[in-house]
Every structure is written in structure tokens, then in C-alpha cells.
Amino acid sequence: MKTMTRALLAAGLIAGAQLAHAAGGTLIYCSEASPEGFDNAQYTGGNSFDASGHPLYNRLVEFEQGSTKLQPGLAESWTVSPDGKVYTFKLRKGVKFHTTENFKPTRDFNADDVVLSFDRMVNKNNAFRKAYPVEFPYASDTGLDANIVSVEKVDPTTVRFTLKEPDADLLAKIAMPFASVLSAEYVGQLMAAGKAGDINQKPVGTGPFVLKRYQKDAQIRYAANKDYWKKGAVKVDNLVYAITTDPSVRYQKMKAGECQIMSYPKPTDLAGMKADPKLKMMTSQGFNIGYLSYNVEKPQLKNPAVRKALDMAINRKAIIDAVYQGQGIEASNPIPPTLWSYNKSLKNPAFDPVKAKAALAKAGYPNGFEITLWAMPVQRPYNPNAKLMAEMIQADWAKIGVKAKIQSYEWGEYLKRMKNGEHDTGLIGWTGDYASPDNFLGVLLTCEAVGGSNYARYCSKEFDQLVLAARKSTNLAERTKLYAKAQEVFKRDMPWSTIAHSTVNQPMRKEVNGFKISPFGDYTFQNVSVK
């Protein structure tokens, strides 16, 4: 039955692709994984944001497509108080929520929707949060849940945010998919029916596309939102995500015209893609970091000396040559070198297995130990081949007596288990969501991010003081010094082995027009058309 279903789905996608080529009405994107769900607030994974936040929802403030520049979204304008603690947003009028088989709105978007969407994340007594109790890791990782005092409705088209402390990155933070605005009317309907959890599988937003069908590990189908408030921004009638975990299969589908654009090509396929007259390639410097996270709560890994020995035993050059194949540079810091406050003085120790083994013995492990090494099941720009990278690290560590057992899980399960701290060490990475060091240092390494995106479970008072002081400051020079010092503390404590920053390559068929590479690694199909 599964084989028949897959065959029928494949046939449907091929027919859809042929129709798209003829009429230009359908865009098919070969994506790499199923989303964790469609309720953006409870996730941090990029594939979930790509499948939900961008096609289905909008935010008060949004990033200009292909840029780090902020622009008005559901808020037409905003003002900030002199002390930086009060933000007042004037909301856009006439914005309509999706009509679906489960919901027909009776009113336009208004302040009630904004209050519901944010209060749910920051107020533990929010009724929707109690009806559907989930975690909100990004609200926590960015410090919003601790810093937002209130989100209030001033009138139907005005909302006021009050903060405990200034936050220079607030607007950029709420431009991310986790801050997507829900329909309070729809939430009320779900709660009345005792089905609050349906928000995660039957989403209703204001975005450019409406969800029509989802089959896990197979496809997601969307239709154009004919009432979308950005007139002319939806240029295809249908959007299909053909979920295809193998990058080689994604490539073959794109070559055959079964999809017009694909995610995350293998470095070994790039030359063939560039030579194919039916394809075109876009390239940009990656705003990312691929790294090995040490779970500092595990007995063998509590000691920074052990982590430094393991780090010294990793042959980064060999990994970058084999895994990235010319599409990556060695990473020394937890932030990319294009980001302001990057500390150029910090370098990785030289690869030296002999010194690493001696350092491990000095730290109390002359005979090494056994450990788990988790490898991501999906390909990402920051790690195009986690299986190979894990095998190379496994071989490196074996030379100093450390026996690493490689483990992996389905992507959603992998992230969930890592957030729970089940791993000893794990390969992971990050593509920035906004152009601030806080999006790396704050979101990935502070105490408040433990249980969220801080997979190392690293909690340093010294590091936190620096990062949180920088977050509250509105003085760029002061923030730069604080973040540079925080990078020094990171390097001293070594909760990660930083591996590489990669180049982003985006192949597509030549009939695709209007697509822009996002500096944040997002896939957005507004303003994209196919011939």
C-alpha cells in the first residue's frame, strides 16, 4: 500500500510538473524534510519555518525578500519610546485570514490577533497556552518571554509592547517565523471544540498561500491566497513541496522537470548543475556555522580540558576538503566572519593527535572512554554530509582512545532529543535568522536557551552577563566589545568544536523567475513565477 501510494504521488507530481511547464500555474519545490509541524511558535527548525511561516503566515515586521533589511508587515508603522522600552504598532487594515474547510473568518485581522499570538508565548496563564500546553523555545532563546512585560490592545488597529529592558534587536526578532500572527477567532473556535492542538496541523494565517493537503514524508500542497493583502505578490496558482530526503534524488527530479527548484545540493553535484543548459545557479556567502556540540552535562564532558582534547584531535582541514569540497571555510568562532563584532584574534588549536592524547590523559582519561556521536539525518548548507563528517571524527577520536558510537534519528526526533540533552556529542549547525551576534551567541549559548537551541546545555554566568548586557545596550561600539569578549569566553570553555562556514548554492530550472537567496537560509516563494 505504501509503495502504491508513493507511486501515485510521484505520478501526480510528474503530471503537476508537466502542467506547470505548460501553463506556469504550479511551482514544485523539492524540499529535504517534513516539517515538525505548522505552529511556528513551538519550533526552531528551518524546514518548519519554510513550510509554514513563509507560505502561510505574516508577522508585524518582515525582512525584505533576499535581504536583512526590515520592512512593514502586518504593522504599517511603529514608534519607540525614548527609553527603548515601549513599542507601539499601527496595524494594517483590510487583511483577511484564510478561508479553509475548517474555518471561515467573520472579521479582518486586528489587534486581538497580535495580543493572542504574543501573550500565548510570554504569559503562562494564557488560556490558549493552557488548552494546548507546548514549549516556545525561540521566545525563550531570544529572551522575549522574560523581557516582554505585556502586549496590549490600545484599539482595534493599535498594539503596545512594554519591555522590562531595552532590546536593540526586538524588531528583527519579531520578524522571524516563530512570531507569526495567528487568528484569535480561529483559536477561539478550536478551543470551544476542545481541539486546540489542531493549530499545529490545520493552520490558518494571512500569508500568500493556503494549506490544502499534507502527507508526511511525501508532499505539501498549497493554493494561492486570492485575498492576499500584498497585491501581485502571488504569481503561481499552486505551490507543492515534494519532500525528498536524498539530495541526489532531488537533483534527478529537478533535471527531469519534476520540480523546478530544490534545497541543499551535494557539493559533488554542483559542477554538473552548472553545466546543464536547463538549469541556473545562484550563489551567496553563507550566514551560518556548522559545529559539533558537546553536552557539557555528561560526566566525561563536564571538564573543558576533555573538550579541548577532543577538539584538538579533529582534523578540520580533512573534513572541509572531503565534506564541503571547496564550498566551506574553517570556523574559529561561533559567529560567521561577515557579522559585526567577529573576533579576528581567536584561532583554533593546531590539529595534533599526540598532544590531544596527552591532554586527555592529563584530564584523567589515559585510556580514553566511550561516547555517542550524533549525526544529522538531513543535509544542510552548514553540513552537507553529516554522516561522512561523523565517520571522520569517529576515526580521529579513535586515535586518542575515544570510541564514538554514531547515532541518528528522523530530523524532528533528532532535534527534540538533542534539546532534551540525550546526546553526548552531536553534529548540528545554524543559519542566522537576523543580522545580530545575539542570534548566535544569545540563542545558541545562553543559560535561558538550555532546553531550546542550546544543545550544549552550556550555562556560564560570565558569558551570560556579557551577552545579556550587549542585548540591552543601544550603543553599537559597546555591544561590539561585549560580544567580542563573549567569544573569548566561548573559546576558553569550548562547548562546541566549530567546524565550518559554508557557501550557499541554489540551483533551479531556468523557467523559475523572481527567486532570491535569503541571507537567513529561508525558502520564500512570494514573487516567484515559472514560465
Automatic annotation (TrEMBL):
Gene Ontology biological process terms, A to Z: dipeptide transport
Signal peptide: 1-22
Name of this protein: ABC transporter substrate-binding protein
Keywords recorded for this protein, A-Z: Signal
UniProt feature coiled coil, ranges: none
Organism: Craterilacuibacter sinensis
Positions of the Solute-binding protein family domain: 69-449
A GO molecular-function descriptor: peptide transmembrane transporter activity
CDD domains per UniProt: PBP2_DppA_like (cd08493)
Any one GO CC term of the record: ATP-binding cassette (ABC) transporter complex
Sequence similarity: Belongs to the bacterial solute-binding protein 5 family.
PANTHER family listed in its UniProt record: D,D-DIPEPTIDE-BINDING PERIPLASMIC PROTEIN DDPA-RELATED, PERIPLASMIC BINDING COMPONENT OF ABC TRANSPORTER
